[in-house]
Design goal:
Elements (H helix, E strand, L loop, with lengths): L2 H23 L7 H6 L6 H12 L2 H4 L1 H9 L5 H4 L1 H18 L5 H8 L2 H35 L1 H5 L3 H54 L4 H11 L1 H4 L17 H11 L2 H8 L4 H15 L2 H5 L1 H10 L1 H4 L5 H9 L2 H39 L5 H23 L9 H25 L5 H22 L17 H22 L28 H24 L2
């Protein structure tokens, strides 16, 4: 590898994007909370879509999902296709209820519907899980990818693990600078630029890999993969696959509903849109772009399985990095690495920015210092962000070595801590009878019942097992069961011990944080929703037919 050429193209691209982000946001008043946390509510739909896509898309997908595909096959594409239906639900159902309350954070919605305690519990759970579950996985997978692409351990003469940690620290520092000095506007703008590059380069990788497999013949490479990896191309799989098809309608759907409809680090991007219609348009554009995901988040993993074999890729975490290193010429390695780094930073600063927002809005001014000014609130959020970065980097050093790979492990932890929040938000939207204490109790209870169900009837939770029966249930089914049980518990309480009239809150229309919001919907919402839903179903059917033909 020509390291000088690689490093030159890498730094050129990285500095150029940073300069554009600074130039376009230099006039923003980051001491103003709405400018800092919501980009002044001026984002056009394309930046909403770019921010949504890049906050979601990072190396836990590029590394983790391709790694899972190299072992389990195309069944894992459900993580990219099922979100289409969650995004449709967000645009049609969740978004109007959030916008009508003129909120900055999802925990604010819970305060409007239940009480201040519900807001604080949700804010604390979000902050803890983002700091210990989301950000460390992003840093670890980013460190693995960047270290492998640049051969850091050989260039510096250090161990592979030390090189992973060095790159994780570097990513954390760069991402923190975006959040501290640029706010959401800089985050959204860099996301859009990196998103465009990632789509182009991401789709280029499998094309180049098939040329390499076919020794210069694209269709020869494709034929080789279809012949040898037909089982892995089948997106349906069997009952014992990593993602059984029936889980798409239970836990897979519920996890995506949480992630795309109630997850602060995602929905905050839509709160920054310049209008309700622009937010809906950006959300549906994201749904359409997610359908491209399997082509650069799943297919490369299957190609890597054919090119390298299981001995080289291990638990899958190295599959994508090895493929990139093998197929890209030196003059493209640096460019791709810069875009790759941009994807990592986008996901990292998206999570970090949402942590800063929730701490400042929900805990600092919403609880610890109710009279804090905008300047004090923004400053507190920035200081807290730095502390979270240190915790996340230290936690990332503990990751690695899971037989399932990082992606599945991250989702299992998410289901335990986050699906109880989804249950509370949904019940808060559909019922006015449920008292606040039932919602607050459910957010805490749900974590323990999830761990108990997985330990007793599943594969355990982070190594903890408590087998009480020979019955084995897939963890995605158990995640859905836990969510349904929590909803049932709250609705039963609402039926037999309802909230007193004085305690009942209207929901998102109660105590709005500002003037009334124009909720005029996007005129193309219905057509766009139908098109992306049919396209998602068609993608599954097409791959199933291709695998069956072999």
């Amino acid at each position: 590898m020509n390291i000088a050429l690689t490093l030159g193209s890498f730094f050129l691209c990285t500095v150029l994007v940073a300069f554009i982000a600074w130039w376009r946001t230099r006039g923003m008043d980051n001491a103003n909370s709405q400018d800092y946390f919501l980009a002044g509510r001026k984002l056009p739909w394309i930046q909403v879509a770019g921010a949504l896509l890049l906050t979601n898309l990072s190396t836990e997908q590029l590394i983790g999902l391709n790694g899972a595909a190299s072992i389990h096959g195309a069944v894992v594409m459900a993580w990219e296709v099922v979100p289409v239906f969650a995004l449709i639900a967000m645009a049609w159902y969740f978004l109007p209820r959030y916008w009508s309350g003129n909120i900055t954070t999802v925990p604010q919605f819970l305060e409007q519907r239940f009480d201040a305690t519900a807001r604080r519990i949700m804010g604390i759970v979000f902050i803890i899980t983002i700091a210990l579950n989301i950000l460390p996985f992003v840093l670890y997978s980013g460190g693995v990818a960047m270290s492998t692409v640049f051969h850091v351990h050989t260039q510096l003469g250090i161990s592979e693990r030390a090189s992973f940690q060095l790159m994780a620290w570097s990513i954390g520092i760069i991402g923190t600078c975006y959040v501290l000095f640029g706010g959401m506007k800089a985050v959204a703008l860099s996301d859009t630029l990196y998103g465009a590059g990632l789509l182009v380069c991401g789709l280029l990788i499998p094309v180049l890999a098939l040329f390499k497999l076919g020794e210069g013949e694209f269709f020869a490479g494709l034929t080789r993969v279809l012949q040898h990896q037909a089982v892995k191309i089948d997106p349906v799989g069997g009952s014992r696959s990593n993602v059984p098809f029936d889980t798409l309608f239970t836990g897979m759907l519920f996890i995506n509903l949480f992630y795309w409809c109630t997850n602060q680090m995602i929905v905050q991007r839509s709160f920054g849109a310049k209008s309700f219609a622009e937010a809906q348009k950006g959300i549906l554009a994201t749904a359409g772009l997610k359908l491209l995901g399997p082509f650069f988040l799943v297919i490369p993993g299957i190609i890597a399985a054919e090119m390298f074999g299981p001995a080289a890729i291990g638990n899958g975490d190295l599959a994508y990095s090895l493929l990139v290193d093998a197929v890209l010429p030196p003059y493209l390695v640096g460019l791709f690495a810069a875009i790759f780094l941009g994807a990592v930073i986008s996901a990292f600063n998206g999570g970090l920015h949402s942590v800063s927002t929730m701490f400042s809005v929900d805990l600092y001014r919403g609880w610890l210092r109710p009279g804090a000014s905008d300047h004090e609130m923004v400053r507190a959020g920035k200081i807290f962000s730095v502390a979270i970065v240190v915790v996340s980097i230290l936690t990332s050093n503990l990751l690695g070595g899971s037989s399932e790979g990082i992606f599945t492990m991250m989702k299992q932890v998410m289901s335990a801590f986050k699906l109880p929040l989804l249950a509370v938000v949904v019940v808060g939207m559909i019922s006015r009878r449920v008292p606040a204490w039932a919602a607050n109790f459910s957010m805490v209870l749900g974590v323990f019942t999830s761990i108990l169900l997985n330990s007793a009837f599943g594969d355990g939770f982070l190594g903890f097992r408590l087998k009480v029966s020979s019955l084995h249930v897939h963890w995605l089914h158990l995640a859905a069961l836990n969510t349904v049980l929590l909803c049932g518990f709250m609705l039963i309480i609402g039926r037999f011990a309802p909230a007193r009239p004085a305690e009942v809150r209207v929901g998102a229309t109660a105590a709005p944080a500002g003037p009334a919001v124009d909720l005029t919907p996007w005129s193309g919402l219905r057509v766009a929703s139908i098109v992306v839903a049919l396209a998602a179903i068609g993608l599954y059917f097409a791959l199933w037919r291709v695998a069956g033909a072999r």
